[in-house]
Amino acid sequence: MKADILEPRSLLAAARKVTSLGTPTRVIVATGALHGPHLSPEKSLRAMSAGALAEVFEINAIGPALVAQHFLPAMPRDRATVFAALSARVGSIADNATGGWYGYRAAKAALNMIIRTAAIEHARSHPLGVCVAVHPGTVATPLSQPFIGQTPPSRLFTPQIAAGHILNVLDGLGPEASGGFYAWDGAAIPW
Ligand SMILES: NC(=O)c1ccc[n+]([C@@H]2O[C@H](COP(=O)([O-])OP(=O)(O)OC[C@H]3O[C@@H](n4cnc5c(N)ncnc54)[C@H](OP(=O)(O)O)[C@@H]3O)[C@@H](O)[C@H]2O)c1
User: Fold this and answer.
1) In terms of CATH, what superfamily is 24-183?
2) Where are the chain's structural domains?
3) What is the mean pLDDT of residues 124-147?
4) Is the pTM here over 0.90, yes or no?
5) What share of the chain is helix, strand, coil (3-state, %, to 5)?
6) In what order do the strands lie in the sheet with 26-29?
7) Helix or strand (DSSP H, E) at 81
8) Distance 128 CA to ligand 1 centre (A)
9) Is the confidence at residue 150, as pLDDT, over 90?
10) For a substitution probing ligand 1, which of 143, 148, 158 has the most ligand atoms within 8 Å of its CB?
11) CB 131 within 8 A of CB 122
12) How many CA atoms are closer than 13 Å to the CA of 137, on its beta-carbon side?
């Protein structure tokens, strides 16, 4: 079924549908936006607009927060589970050496904080649960298409390869890793 991550009623229906079919043990939030009809990564403060900032925060931070709100409580408490949201390395404040992309960077940093905070709350009721943010690498999708210019082929992943990387990383994480931010190769990314 389709769900709109910005519509709590739509997420409630999705969570009810999923739980009617079984208990979700792995939830991956793979939504996000970098550009669109009203959205373009800002190279300067001058290029920022309140409307575009609100939109990029809605899709990249608020939507996944609402998914976490609806799906984390539905996960079983008595076995290993994983909830992951696709973030981006450019959301790392420590790693920001080049600037630019104000809204997307800030929205992913906000997402990282939401995931970290949710992981702390989730651990109290779900001691075997893992809740993390994941950077998928550079993946050939509509999101990255205008920006992949000089990316070497060895660093540009197909969606299928990227999905395999993400599942490998998630399968290797235990509860002690919950609340972290990990790259496609399993390396921890500084906040
Ligand atoms: N591609 C990369 O190189 C790269 C790098 C770093 C991080 N990431 C992150 O990885 C994630 C996946 O990106 P992608 O490359 O797969 O991008 P994509 O191809 O543009 O896919 C984004 C997805 O988000 C969905 N979406 C947007 N708004 C939604 C809403 N309100 N409700 C439900 N779904 C919504 C879109 O659904 P519709 O098609 O139905 O609109 C689309 O399927 C994103 O969080 C992105 O920031 C990607």
Assistant:
1) NAD(P)-binding Rossmann-like Domain (3.40.50.720)
2) 24-183
3) 97
4) yes
5) 50, 15, 40
6) 26-29, 81-86, 129-135, 181-183
7) strand 81-86
8) 28
9) no
10) 143
11) yes
12) 23
